Backbone:
């Protein structure tokens, strides 16, 4: 038994030894097969990708940012341009921890920089472009020259140029021009397909955003061959960047400056001036305002951002395109509703009194006595509340809303920067039945008090200064609703797409124009008269602030009469005292400047 068992073990050992070469062979074949498969994968299926990676190891594309197109006023004067600024950068992969202290000390001495700040900025890591770190910004020309004289011995450091947006007039027309900002990482995922780089800036608001594609240009770059140390071996080619196109705006720099000066002593407000023949905006001012150069800074602290974006005065909000109670500047719209409805024809005369009761409230006339029996023209001249209460309540909310819609209210004006624009509100019985935008349907019915308030532009009516200017342009140009715009941009703004006839009787238009002229001749707007002012027509307005603040002051006008060449709307936010006291002088300054410059 022992002998038999020993023979069996010997046979098994011999069999195992005979199988070892086969196992080794299979193992070698398996390894070789894996290597061949990997080579096939790399050489045949992935060759393009690996060729690209190899090229990137020896070829570097140095991008050249395009110069953004300038913004010019209607006379070719520069409103926005670009300026060059030089910055010091570090390429981390070329600088080791051992070599950094010596480089840092040389840079600090050569460029008069704080070595501790250089250390701090290096520790932040690479910038958003992924390959370099910003060490210092806005170097003077002298420092740039010093660096370039020693550049060959400053391995890993470089001075590069950045192109930043520059607004030479500071805050002037800030809400209209807008500003540019670096694109975000989430935006880059989409914009990269359109040729944007991670270092790109994009228009955020205003004209900068509306005409981004016109202004931005195209990136270029240099192709350089470098060695493993990153040293340039030879120059392979150059593709120059393509500058963006200049854009001529309809704004008039002189009028814009005067409009903003007119707002200087007001807590807030807006001035709009436009050409009633085609809607070209000549001035669009708003207060409070901001300096768009703030957004061109290469480095901005969170504290600085908070000071602007969390400011309770909301300087980034354009008052020209935000909605407010219009007060008596709304009365021409009520007049239009009365005449167009047929219930209150142009020749009608109505008795005015100290006050008229609607619902549980007696709505007064502003003089506390009324103005006797008068027609539309004198009702506008005296700004009689009780006259327009009767007209508004008599025609009803739907007729008033119809007239308002025809004049462009409760809708956007069509201006290029319309995403920043409020549509405002013209309340009616349907709106009230649906809950007024804040309550359950059926819980807030339209009441007589609402209609009386709507008749004189209070409470349930809110409009923007730009909307009011557009509506007064209808009276100035003989019945055409135009589209306000800031640039011609090869668009025919007088075509039927942008300028439409308002379906209004000639007798209605004639009576409203006659009344607006009387306002200026010897009514509440008589302060507009004077040397240097062509004969004009307009309407004053004093509006209670439905949000609870002090009264607003308004004045809308056009000149010369009867066929206006300019419309001006002035709005002084929360400035009690009356439209004739505060807003009218603002508009007068703009008209004086317009009349002075057009004579040249």
Residues:
């Amino acid at each position: 038994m022992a002998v038999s068992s020993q023979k069996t073990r010997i046979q098994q050992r011999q069999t195992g030894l005979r199988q070892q070469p086969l196992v080794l062979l299979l193992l070698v074949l398996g390894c070789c097969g894996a290597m061949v498969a990997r080579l096939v994968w790399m050489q045949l299926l992935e060759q393009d990708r690996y060729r690209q990676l190899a090229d990137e190891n020896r070829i570097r594309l140095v991008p050249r940012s395009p110069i953004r197109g300038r913004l010019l006023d209607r006379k070719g004067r520069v409103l926005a341009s670009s300026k060059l600024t030089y910055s010091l950068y570090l390429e981390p992969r070329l600088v080791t921890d051992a070599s950094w202290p010596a480089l840092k000390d040389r840079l600090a001495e050569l460029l008069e920089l704080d070595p501790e700040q250089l250390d701090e900025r290096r520790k932040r890591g690479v910038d958003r472009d992924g390959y370099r770190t910003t060490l210092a910004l806005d170097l003077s020309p002298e420092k740039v020259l010093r660096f370039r004289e020693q550049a060959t011995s400053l391995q890993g450091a470089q001075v590069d140029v950045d192109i930043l947006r520059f607004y030479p007039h500071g805050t002037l027309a800030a809400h209209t021009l807008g500003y540019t900002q670096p694109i975000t990482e989430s935006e880059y995922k989409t914009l990269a397909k359109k040729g944007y780089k991670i270092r790109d800036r994009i228009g955020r608001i205003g004209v900068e955003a509306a005409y981004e594609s016109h202004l931005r240009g195209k990136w270029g770059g240099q192709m350089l061959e470098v060695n493993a140390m990153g040293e340039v071996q030879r120059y392979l080619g150059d593709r120059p960047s393509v500058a963006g196109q200049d854009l001529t705006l309809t704004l008039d720099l002189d009028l814009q400056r005067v409009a903003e000066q007119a707002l200087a002593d007001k807590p807030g407000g807006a001035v709009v001036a436009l050409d009633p023949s085609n809607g070209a905006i000549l001035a669009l001012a708003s207060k409070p305002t901001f300096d768009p150069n703030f957004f061109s800074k290469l480095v901005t602290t969170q504290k600085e951002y908070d000071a602007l974006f969390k400011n309770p005065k909301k300087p980034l909000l354009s008052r020209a395109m935000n909605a407010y109670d219009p007060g008596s500047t709304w009365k021409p719209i009520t007049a239009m509703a009365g005449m167009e409805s047929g219930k209150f024809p142009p020749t009608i005369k109505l008795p005015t009194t100290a006050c008229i009761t609607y619902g549980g409230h007696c709505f007064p006339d502003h003089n506390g006595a009324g103005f006797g029996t008068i027609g539309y023209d004198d009702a506008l001249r005296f700004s009689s509340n009780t006259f327009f209460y009767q007209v508004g309540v008599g025609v009803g909310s739907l007729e008033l809303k119809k007239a308002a819609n025809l004049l462009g209210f409760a809708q956007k004006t069509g201006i290029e920067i319309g995403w920043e624009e409020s549509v405002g509100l013209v309340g009616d019985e349907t709106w009230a039945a649906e809950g007024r935008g804040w309550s359950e349907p059926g819980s807030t019915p339209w009441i007589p008090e609402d209609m009386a308030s709507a008749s004189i532009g209070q409470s349930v009516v809110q409009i923007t200064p730009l909307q009011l200017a557009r509506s007064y342009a209808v009276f100035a140009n003989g019945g055409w609703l135009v589209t306000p715009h800031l640039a011609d941009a090869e668009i025919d703004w007088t075509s039927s797409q942008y300028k439409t006839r308002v379906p209004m009787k000639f007798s209605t238009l004639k009576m409203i124009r006659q009344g607006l002229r009387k306002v200026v001749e010897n009514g509440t707007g008589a302060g507009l008269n004077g040397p240097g002012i062509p004969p004009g027509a307009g309407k004053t307005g004093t509006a209670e602030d439905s949000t609870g603040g002090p009264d607003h002051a308004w004045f809308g006008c056009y000149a010369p009469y009867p066929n206006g060449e300019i419309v001006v709307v002035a709005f002084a936010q929360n400035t009690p005292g009356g439209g004739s006291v505060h807003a009218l002088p603002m508009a007068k300054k703009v008209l004086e400047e317009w009349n002075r410059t057009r004579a040249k």
